[in-house]
Each structure stands twice: as C-alpha cells, then as structure tokens.
Amino acid sequence: MKGCLLAGALLLMSGAVWAEASAVPAKSLTSAKPQIIARDAWVREVPPVSPAAALFVTLHNAGAKAVAITKMSSPVAERVEWHDMIMADGHMRMSQRHVIELPVGDTALAPGASHLMLLNLRQPLRVGDSVPVRLSLANGEVLALNATVRATQPNKQAPHEH
Ligand SMILES: [Cu+2]
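^ Copper chaperone PCu(A)C, sequence as received from the core. Prediction below:
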C-alpha cells in the first residue's frame, strides 16, 4: 500500500515537472537536449588481474542548475564509485563521494584528481576496449557513456592503489 502511495506521489511530481517544461517557449522544445553531456571518457589501463580501474571524463552540465547523480553502473564492474583525491598525512588518498552534484558547466574528472572507480571488475580490460557506464540523474535523465581503455603513460603521479 505504501508503495502505491509513493508511486502516486512520483506521478504527481513528474506531472508537475512536465507542466513546467511545457511552459518553455516552443522553440526550445524542438530538440530534447540532454542536460548532461559526457566528453572524452577513458579508462586507464590496468593489469588483467587488477580488481579496479579508474575512469576519467568531462561532464558538461548545459542546464541552469546543478543536478545530482543518483546511480552509477557498468556491466564490467560490480559497482561504480565517485572518488576524490585528498591530501592526508602528506599522501594522496582516495575518498568516496556519496552525494554527487554536477554544477553548471564542466566537471572534469582527470588523473590526480577525481575519477569514477570501477570496482570488482568482472572481466579484464584491454587497451582499445569500450567500457559502457550508465549514470542516472536526479532529473530523470540516464547518461550512457562509453569510455575507451587507454594505455598508461609513466608519470610522476602517486600510484593508484586499492
Ligand atoms: Cu579510486
């Protein structure tokens, strides 16, 4: 019974959103543009035995306000987490972010900074492979992106370990 009430409330909510969208001048409705666009998605190559891999991408919010990511998944991994790099005791550590808001404009996930962590990989990832990831957004959009596995270049950054 509670489930029915909840579903009803959700229907009412989506109805309200639709009414708001309908008030937008017709011109901007000609193409339903997604609010979030992914650019340059790639996964850093890891050894075949590695249980995890990092994914980098630029997420562009073309909307007027921030939108939250509510769920992340990939068929190649048991789970997907958002990790930030933080300095602790003189070392860079990864810290999982639980509330993920994408502000208007670009959010760049790049080596040495934030990344999406693909955890408990179900299969080895090879250079050139395309890794599908789905991001569910609070506005109802589902962003499906494909990240290409790229070879790792030696660099001075701290190794990424779990
Ligand atoms: Cu990580």
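Residues 33-150 form a domain with the Immunoglobulin-like fold (CATH 2.60.40.1890).
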